[in-house]
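Q: I'm teaching a short session on how sequence maps to structure, and I want students to see two examples side by side rather than one. Could you give me a first protein with its sequence written out and its structure tokens following it? Keep the formatting plain so it prints cleanly on a handout.
A: Of course. Example one:
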Amino acid sequence: MIGTLGKHAKTAAFELAKLSTLEKNALLHALAQALIAETDFIVLENAKDLAHAQDNGVNDIMVDRLRLTAERILDMAEGIRQVATLADPVGQVMTGFTNLDGLKVLQTRVPIGVIGMIFESRPNVTIDAFSLCFKTNNAVILRGGKDAINSNKALVTVIKATLVAQGITEHAVGLVTDTSHEVARQMMLATEYLDVLIPRGGAGLIRTIKEQSRVPIIETGSGNVSIYVDEFADLDMATKIVINAKVQRPSVCNAAESLVVHEKVAAAFLPKLQKAIDAVQPVDFRLDDIAINLMTGTPATDADFSTEYLDYTMSVKVVSDLDQAIAHINHYGTKHSESIITDNIAHAEQFQAQIDAAAVYVNASTRFTDGFAFGFGAEIGISTQKLHARGPMGLEALTSYKYLINGTGQTRG
């Protein structure tokens, strides 16, 4: 399967490289309309995945990751339209100069070629990945999880039909329909066809691909995200932000998993937070030796501070100063997103300078670490590595570059 998909994708990548910005944008607008037109079909196929998940005892939070509704399909269509409106990075001149030999050198953005994605649960990734890859003239091979296979098949069916209707090769997108681990492993070894592999999912999936893949990967990390409530925090603001970051959608990687609180405000803040959050959605707090005397919960273990719960669970650590807070977050975090709540400018600047993460906030919810919220239209993942791409990965992250050199007959002696 991977060999066939890979050959088709490799050929498609050369064809896609010829497409103009106008042609790409026209396809994306057509796809947005097609998704809306096929809402009933997509929702019907998605219902099969939802039923299977519920029959297998999947909890409500994880089922919500799978769910596609008419409203969510409208959001997907809007994301595609936003990608279409963004500047096309392909062909952009990054820099240019004339060297000592009189050669005119241009560094220009080019497509990567064929991008592979292995992801879990959320079928909207299918649309995000395709729209970003297509806009950057890349072919993409998608391998979602078995829990979303019917949804992914439906979405790729709509994509392929739209491509054909626009006179573009349907092999711009490929879907791995065999969701076995063996086929996923074959994908990790497909260096002949894939230029890069992007895993998107839980820590276990990402670790496995990182360890086993021979294809170069862009690591999108799990989100053990922290919020630090400083001694100079506005506690009403802090309460609002923590509630939003924890319970608004706990199953996503930018949801907060850990709360760090300065000891000078812990006694005032923690009971206030628990009362307010209980009114919205009760949370199972895992509490350190100080916090357990200030709110209701269970004693925290060391593992609790490094866990991405993706649920209504949150660890709480009380610290004596900002340095301890930074050290705690840098030790247990996954370099995804962190936030400080403070009215002290010096503390805010120190936190942003010293926290090792792709996105560092002051007085805002971590839920904004998202390609759509950042104005990228969508994202193919949130990179927690430091080479090539970091944070929400939009169009530029899906390009490489090459040098174009023009001479007048120069030879090198």
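Q: Perfect. Now a second example for contrast.
A: Example two:
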Amino acid sequence: MWGENQNLQDNNKPIKTFHMTYLAQIQETAEWIQAHTALRPQTAIVLGTGLGKLAQEIDVVDEFPYKDIPNFPVSTVEGHSGRLIFGHLGGKPIMALEGRFHYYEGYTMQEVTFPERVMYALGIKNLFLSNASGGTNPDFEIGDLMLITDHINFQPEHPLHGPNIPTGPRFPDMSEAYDRAFLEAARNIAREKGIKVVEGVYLADQGPTYETPAEYKMYRLLGADAVGMSTVPEVIVARHCGIRCFGISIITDLGVEGKIVEVSHEEVQKAANAVQPLMAEIFRELIKKID
């Protein structure tokens, strides 16, 4: 599946051993999943902080706690249930991760993006991602749904660091990290349904602290409209695998001068939960339109 040439030097045996073990784990996990569900979806969804209620929109066929899946990481963050779901949404078979993994939890980037590698092995072609984020754009309001048009990677480790996995080139192009056709379709859906959406650039930093006012200001100067702690590594690996990506950030707090207030994880979850139905409608209608 992965090809014969692993682009590894024979004199670097420790890296080669790790690489081959990683590939074997991906294959083992994919085979386990295929043996436990008859569904073969081409679309996957990743549900972020406070966004697990979208899973209630799914007509579930099979579900597996992460702890039961070979080699799968386990989410440690409140608001991330930790289930892999197979079912139907918008009349189409889908795979959904109810909870994701973060670098700040102590995972390596290979572990953070392990699900995307497994998605490729399972034949996933489209990936929808959601997250809760802090808005740095002064025109944004709490509860806004931001269609992610691009991203800035501000995390300390790149998910493609190390030997190249032959799902894509050593130096993958990222000029269209977020699929333009998906974005245009989402705009049309929002317009037809009367759903307010904004658009912008998402910046991923390390976490787990929320940003200081000075950091928010810096990120805005760098071109970010929203800031969070996830999504970007997953998109990078998905694009390396040739998977089309679409993402929505729910603006749960504001990092705008004069509007910054103390924020807690519980408040972020509450703000995300309030607008989940609108995001679910966009996801559902968009999935319906996928050929």
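Q: What should students look for in example two?
A: Point them to this: The helical segments are 13-36, 109-112, 114-122, 180-193, 213-222, 232-240, 265-274, 276-289. Also worth mentioning: Residues 64 and 209 are 30 Å apart (CA to CA).
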